[in-house]
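Entry type: protein chain
Record version: 2
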Amino acid sequence: MKNRLLLAVMAILCMSLLSFGCAKKQVAGPDKDNWEEQERERLARERELREKLGRVAGELGTMIHFDFDRYDLKPEARQTLTRKAEILKQYPEIKLVIEGHCDQRGTAEYNLALGERRARAAADYLVNLGVPTAKLSIVSYGKERPLDPANNEAAWAKNRRDEFKPSY
């Protein structure tokens, strides 16, 4: 009898403890509202950056060209780069990838090195005009991505270039 009574008391005690339990964690309304507000602000900033990029992408995307086996900047290339520098300083959020390209003549290794020197020449010019180095990156494609695959001087002249890819 004593064991049954003890067992009954223990059962009642366990049931009462289970009924109290831990309180459920409530998701506070202000945290949820704060997160939604932050997301709205992030999306608004991203939309603004896309709009800015859209306004200047054409000018930032303008290519410059080089003479055969050269990586020095022509006067018209310097003018184009000067305008790019003004835009990049006006819009600090915009970054620029500079791609160096060559025509199909020469070895792949030689053209990769030449493409890098061409991209580096443009980047150095922009940095000298006050564009932060952190906003620029360079890549060389050598002769791997010709604009015009023909094998004549007109096609080769098109392929000796730097292309510019803006982003944010």
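Comment: DSSP finds five helices and four strands in the chain.
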